[in-house]
Amino acid sequence: MRILVVEDEPKTGAYLKKGLEESGYSVDVAADGADGLILAQQEEYDVIVLDVMLPTMDGWAVLKTLRATRATPVLFLTARDDVDDRVRGLELGGDDYLVKPFAFVELLARVRTLARRGPPRESELLKVGDLEIDVNRRRVKRGGNRIELTPREFSLLQLLARRQGEVLSRTQIASYVWDMNFDSDTNVVEVAIRRLRAKIDDGYDVKLIQTVRGVGYVIDCKESD
């Protein structure tokens, strides 16, 4: 099982990583809110341990943005024990709340409970024509041929496939695939689409990723006129 720890205090982050890895988990650590959000959006985690007071983005902002696309269980860590803070965290979509200082055995028990609960699965297998996307294994095939994608390419393809037939603007794509401060005036989205097309569509008669001029992009097994 994979755990993401978002904690800006180096000693606490290292302590949690060591303890959770010794308990059998694979652990990634992010030292600020923006980096934690990017990892949480790009990768598949069983539980996220999220500090509230973080640089660049606080835990509230991270969770609010994350909940637009992910249902990964979140355990808040904070030095603040106000009832209002606990209620705010739960209302934003947090699953549990642990106040610092804490006993590691208690944190571990809560992580295990959340991991067993897990997020609701949307769809384990997405299909667009002869394209198959195994969401949980992060594997992609077209016409039975395996296609290797980078994490960013997979996130982009998954977004398009989940919204099959719906035209997504460059701004929408940027807000889901990149961080919230992404400058949509750059050509990063176009470059990413071009690279994804080279892997998904080159060599196939039916082109799945289509451009709607002046609007954005759509994935569909029906070619546009």
Topology of this protein?
Elements: E1 2-6, H1 10-22, E2 26-30, H2 33-42, E3 47-51, H3 59-66, E4 74-78, H4 83-91, E5 96-99, H5 104-117, E6 125-128, E7 131-134, E8 139-142, E9 145-147, H6 151-162, E10 168-169, H7 170-177, H8 188-200, E11 209-212, E12 216-219
Parallel strand pairs: 1-2, 1-3, 3-4, 4-5
Antiparallel strand pairs: 6-7, 7-8, 8-9, 10-12, 11-12
Helix pairs in contact: 2-3, 6-8
What this model shows, in words?
The protein has two domains: 2-117, Response regulator (Rossmann fold); 125-219, Winged helix-like DNA-binding domain superfamily/Winged helix DNA-binding domain (Arc Repressor Mutant, subunit A), CATH 1.10.10.10. With 225 residues, it is of the alpha/beta class. It is 39% helix and 22% strand. It has a five-stranded parallel β-sheet with strand order 2-1-3-4-5, sandwiched between helices. The protein is built from eight helices and twelve strands. The termini are far apart. It is elongated and about 60 Å long. Pfam families: Response_reg, Trans_reg_C. This is Transcriptional activator protein CzcR. Residues 123-221 bind DNA. Keywords: Cadmium, DNA-binding, Phosphoprotein, Transcription, Transcription regulation, Two-component regulatory system, Zinc.
